[in-house]
Write a structure and sequence with these properties.
Distance between the termini: 96 Å
Helix content: over 70%
Strand order of the largest sheet: 1-3-2
Shape: globular
Number of domains: 2
CATH topology of the largest domain: Four Helix Bundle (Hemerythrin (Met), subunit A)
Order of helices and strands: HHEHHEEHHHHHHH
Structural class: mainly alpha
Strand content: under 5%
CATH architecture of the largest domain: Up-down Bundle
CATH superfamily of the largest domain: GntR ligand-binding domain-like
Largest sheet: 3 strands, antiparallel
């Protein structure tokens, strides 16, 4: 009998308040979303270390939700944990980016096919608003604003397609791509203009309910984005190598020998 009483007491003390579970889960989600935003917007760069105590102080929360947020971000492919070193923003290689772009092209092509036959006036208005935002950013020579509107345009298409699993998969891929070098629109002066024209053509095809044409344009656009990203990476590496060579040549010579 004593054992039964003790077990009952243990179960009562060990039970978890469901309200506390919900509160903690919601808090973890908020912390995760905030850190994810910093990663996606480039405020945290690939290779940056995430300090649990610093983020807890910054967000005015205990370290528990931050630790859980780090785990969620690792599952989402945005950070990596190194034993005895800590948590770091993950780096996406060119080879991995190739794979992500290939899957993204398939997903967005499918989204265009799904959306074209059912697109309504409200959805078209949203896409036109984002296209206008891209145009304004292009006119202002603001690649960061252009990139944000660009992402929102694509997100709106996939979300409007009406397939939740497709959208969830797409969101994860886009988050991972944010870890890849995003200099493609900056390196080449005409990249934004070409991208803008491609988005305009996609919107026109969707408005015309031409599923096949919209899908083909989207696939070509995404694959073109990969080519621009590859070119940007190559040019960026060449500039880095050139800068290192200049620093080497500008370094003071070693003192002459007394021999």
């Amino acid at each position: 009998m004593a054992k039964v009483v003790k077990m009952t007491e243990y179960m009562q003390t060990a039970s978890v308040d469901p309200i506390e579970v919900v509160r903690r889960h919601s808090l973890t989600a908020l912390v995760r979303d905030e850190i994810e935003r910093h990663i996606i917007e480039g405020e945290l760069a690939p290779g940056d270390k995430l300090n649990e105590a610093e983020w807890a102080a910054r967000l005015h929360v205990s370290r528990g939700p931050v630790r859980e947020a780090f785990r969620a971000l690792e599952q989402a492919g945005l950070v990596r944990t190194e034993k005895n070193r800590g948590v770091f923003v993950r780096t996406v290689s060119l080879a991995e980016a190739d794979e992500i772009y290939a899957v993204r092209a398939v997903l967005e092509e499918a989204a265009c096919r799904m959306l074209a036959g059912r697109i309504d006036a409200r959805q078209l208005a949203v896409l036109r608003d984002w296209l206008d935002a891209m145009r304004a950013a292009f006119d202002a020579h603001d690649p960061d604003a252009y990139a944000r509107a660009n992402v929102a345009f694509h997100d709106a298409i996939v979300a409007a397609a009406g397939n939740r699993k497709l959208y969830e998969t797409y969101r994860r891929l886009v988050s991972e791509l944010s870890l890849f070098r995003r200099a493609a629109l900056v390196v080449h002066a005409d990249a934004m203009e070409r991208s803008l024209a491609e988005h305009r053509a996609i919107l026109t095809a969707l408005a015309s309910r031409d599923a096949g044409h919209a899908a083909a344009l989207m696939q070509a656009h995404v694959r073109g984005g990969l080519q621009r990203a590859r070119a940007a990476c190559k040019e960026g590496e060449q500039k880095e190598q050139g800068g290192a060579a200049e620093q080497w040549s500008a370094a003071p010579s070693a003192p002459a020998s007394d021999e």
